[in-house]
Write a structure and sequence with these properties.
With 416 residues, this protein is of the alpha/beta class. 38% of the residues lie in helices and 24% in strands. The strands form three sheets. An eight-stranded mixed sheet has the order 3-4-2-1-7-9-10-8, sandwiched between helices. Strand 3, helix 7 and strand 4 form a beta-alpha-beta unit. The model has no long low-confidence stretch (mean pLDDT 95).
């Protein structure tokens, strides 16, 4: 059993869908599950739909039509027969989306987000499944929401592993090529949930774990895992091999190639993960596995933009000790702040956070009741694994360093 995951960039247009089919034909697709993301930047446009739904109803239908037009062009490019059933299937998804937005009574943005954005994955997998069928690659389309069960922590749901294992084991047919959606699940009330942005990788790992897969392959528009994001760093190099531990470290610090949650279930069953280029599917790419050292051993750079650095100091010069720190972390949890770096001294405490849920102002208001607060917005957090003096100089040159923290293998630097 092998699991393939294709991201949005790999199926951004009709040529991408045709290339996915070519990858399957080159690599083989016997006893295979394909996990697919929404096409191109669909999730971003779905988020615009949500923005219009809550704040600009006049533009709501035009933003939905933009998504419909994008997918309709892909359909026209792939299917010669405009009476093919796939056109009706896709139209019904948009009817369902509009129906939900008209009848929804919940003011909870996170709930509405999860009921809305997942249509991108449902549509993309339906188009791909139908296209593969007409070119002779017979497959079975699965609604992932019937198999991956979660809690109702919308936008970052936690998997109910017992229920998920039972459902996948009971329902999955290994005798055919299967295709399903990444990123999605459902809660106990069968409302759609999402696993966090880039959660399609995690979906692939969930299925691999439950099905005891031989391997997982993530197909990307890069040759494999690089030591840096080429959008921000020059001369990025391919990493041929990485251990689970190293990959988990890189993912934890924000490396965008592998989702942070993806690696744990694979490690537990020692399932190797491959990251390969969908342009060159026969190249080796990167292998992540057990008892593997980083090859080559070079610095690995990670940057997270648009972070927030909050610095606290006591109002009366008293120590910031366990009970103060406990209160701070309770607030960070309450306001759903993702903590990336912490640093404290006797009378000060600094934390770099990702304001995912836009709760920063409420948090700051709460903190100011007890502490002197300084807040730097739109800072960048740089992390270097296996750093060298030259690597540190490379990221600090021309920037104002607000915080620096070193350990034996890792340095983190917050800059303005």
């Amino acid at each position: 059993m092998q699991v393939f995951k294709f991201g949005g960039a790999s199926v951004k247009d009709a040529n991408g869908v045709k290339n996915l089919a070519a990858v399957l034909q080159k690599t083989g697709y016997k006893n295979t599950l394909i996990v697919v993301s929404a096409m191109g930047k669909t999730t971003n446009v779905m988020e615009l739909v949500l923005k219009n739904y809550f704040n600009n109803k006049a533009q709501l239908q035009s933003s939905i039509q933009e998504i419909k037009k994008f997918h309709n062009q892909i359909l026209l490019d792939l299917f010669e027969d405009e009476n093919h059933p796939v056109f009706k299937k896709i139209s019904l998804f948009f009817d369902e989306l509009n129906s939900f937005l008209k009848t929804n009574k919940s003011p909870d943005y996170n709930f509405v987000y999860d009921q809305t954005v997942g249509f991108g994955e449902l549509i993309s997998t339906t188009i791909i499944s139908e296209y593969l069928n007409i070119i002779g690659i017979k497959n079975n389309w699965i609604d992932v929401r019937n198999q991956i069960k979660t809690d109702n922590y919308y936008r970052r749901a936690h998997v109910n592993w017992d229920d998920t294992q039972h459902l996948i084991t009971a329902q999955f047919n290994k005798n055919v090529l299967n295709i399903t959606q990444g990123f999605l699940g459902s809660d106990a009330n069968n409302f759609t949930t999402t696993l966090g942005r880039e959660g399609s990788d995690y979906t692939a790992a969930i299925y691999a774990y439950c099905l005891n897969a031989e391997s997982v392959t993530i197909w990307k528009d890069v040759p494999g895992v690089l030591n840096a994001d080429p959008r921000y760093f020059e001369n990025a190099q391919l990493l041929n091999k990485i251990s689970y531990r190293e990959a988990i470290e890189l993912a934890f610090y924000g490396a965008s190639v592998i989702h942070p949650k993806t690696l744990q279930p694979l490690q537990r069953k020692e399932i190797p993960l491959y990251v390969k280029s969908f342009f060159n599917p026969e190249q080796d790419g990167t292998m992540v596995g057990k008892d593997t050292t980083l090859e080559p051993m070079i610095p690995c750079f990670i940057v997270k933009k648009n972070q927030v650095l909050i610095s606290l100091s006591s109002l009366d010069f008293s120590y910031i000790v366990e009970d103060n720190i406990s209160d701070i972390f309770k607030l960070l949890h309450q306001y759903k702040m993702k903590v990336d770096v912490i640093q404290n001294s006797a009378i000060s405490f600094s934390v770099c956070v990702d304001n995912i849920y836009n709760n920063l102002e409420e948090l700051l208001h709460h903190l100011k009741a007890k502490f002197k607060v300084t807040c730097n917005k739109n800072v960048s957090l740089y992390t270097i694994r296996h750093y060298t003096d030259g690597a540190i100089k490379q990221i600090e040159t021309g920037k104002t360093v607000l915080l620096k923290q070193l350990t034996q293998e890792t340095i983190q630097v917050v800059t303005k």
